[in-house]
Amino acid sequence: MKDSTAVPSSFSLEEWINNPLKDAEISEDILEVDWMQNSGDKAEPFDNINDTYEEADEAYEIEWVNEEFGEQKALTLKQRRILGNLYYHWRSYKDNSGQGGEVYNHVPCRTKIQGRSPDVAYITPQLAEHFGDLEVFPQSFPLIAEVASPADLAEELIAKSHEYLRSGSEEVWLIFPENRWIIIITENQKLIFGSGDIVYTQRLLNGFSVEVDELLG
After folding, report:
1. Would the pTM count as exceeding 0.90?
2. 39 - beta bridge partners?
3. Which of helix, strand or coil describes residue 111?
4. In the chain, where does DSSP find H-type helix?
5. What are the pLDDT digits (tens) for 192-216?
6. pLDDT in tens, 20-71
7. Alpha carbon 55 to chain centroid distance?
8. Domains and CATH numbers, the chain
């Protein structure tokens, strides 16, 4: 989301990966949870990370961008509804189709030079097995969606999508609620879907489709 306040920090990207909330100036009730504490030699699984994000999601998303923390303001009700719709549809489809994998909201990942927290992300079962239970995914998720806020600039979101594609993503959805557009970007193409269209995946979750109007509500 665009509407953010940068918090200067001496943290490096590697330190953000080890603790994406440490030293960020957010409410004490969120900071009570240390995301990156390991239990013995085993890191807490992705599901625990997602549970914690559900708490932090009420106030902020935390990213590490341009060598400093970015505290990103909470989503609007409209954005939350769309995010929840997409999360539900992707998760239901990956279960019902038997393709497996996992779907997350606001889970941290590393691009080549930044620490990001995509709105919705999907990981294939092969990558889940390969990387195991990690606190921060070491590359961009294969399938990512970002829901634009009123303050977001299309150019900045498109640049962010290319950042994802350069670091492991195969497909990025940019959702613009006010325009009722969904732009899907892959390495080789950009597709625009609008009101009245049926939007469908290009590279991941093969066969998934949903009406744009149903998704946007």
Report:
1. no
2. 42
3. coil
4. 13-18, 28-31, 46-56, 77-96, 125-131, 154-165, 212-216
5. 999 999 999 999 999 999 999 999 9
6. 444 444 333 333 333 333 323 333 333 443 443 343 344 345 554 544 445 5
7. 16
8. 4-216 (3.90.1570.10)
